[in-house]
Backbone:
């Protein structure tokens, strides 16, 4: 049996980076329905009132007001402290934590994984902002035939919708596609002087 005496902040980050809220909720028996809602385990819920946010953005119940990350969810569900909940998640999902006896190479790999995760989160947020902003501008232009961007709007609107969908479904794949990333930069530049 592994010793968990020295759970570090890195361990918490590791557990959180490996587990989406949806994965954890479903693992413990709460089916996440369309629109990312599920029955709230923390009050007598009949209609799903708990929102499960994508990736590591946690949960929130708009009826009883409980919310937090995967660790908080598990702590509340099983009546554990956050530390115990983190251990439980690590065990249930076979995530190696506590880095006693970890080799140099294992540590480097873990840190790299963590860095990649953070990079990807940052990219996803920025890309979503650029694409959503562009979509709004295109929607406005498409309604106005006298707009200088009218033709562009007709041509590009469905493309942008598609890109947003790809981004939400698989941000890692999107990030790896250098052409798609370059295109984001172009959009950002072009829309900077829009409507002027
Ligand atoms: Zn609730």
Residues:
């Amino acid at each position: 049996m592994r010793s968990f005496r020295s759970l570090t902040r890195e361990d918490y980050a590791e557990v959180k980076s490996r587990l989406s809220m949806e994965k954890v909720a479903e693992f413990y028996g709460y089916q996440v329905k369309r629109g990312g809602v599920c029955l709230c385990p923390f009050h007598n819920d009949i209609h799903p009132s708990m929102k499960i946010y994508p990736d590591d953005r946690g949960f929130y119940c708009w009826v009883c007001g409980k919310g937090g990350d995967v660790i908080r969810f598990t702590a509340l569900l099983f009546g554990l402290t956050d530390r115990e909940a983190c251990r439980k998640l690590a065990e249930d999902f076979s995530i190696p934590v506590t880095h006693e006896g970890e080799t140099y190479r294992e540590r480097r790999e873990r840190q790299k994984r963590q860095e990649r995760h953070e990079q990807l989160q940052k990219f996803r947020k920025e890309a979503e902002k650029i694409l959503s902003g562009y979509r709004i501008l295109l929607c406005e232009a498409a309604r106005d035939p006298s707009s200088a961007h009218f033709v562009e709007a007709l041509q590009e609107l469905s493309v942008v919708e598609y890109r947003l969908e790809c981004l939400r479904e698989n941000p890692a794949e999107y990030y790896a596609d250098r052409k798609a990333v370059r295109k984001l930069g172009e959009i950002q530049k072009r829309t900077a002087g829009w409507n002027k």
Remarks:
- The mean pLDDT is 89.
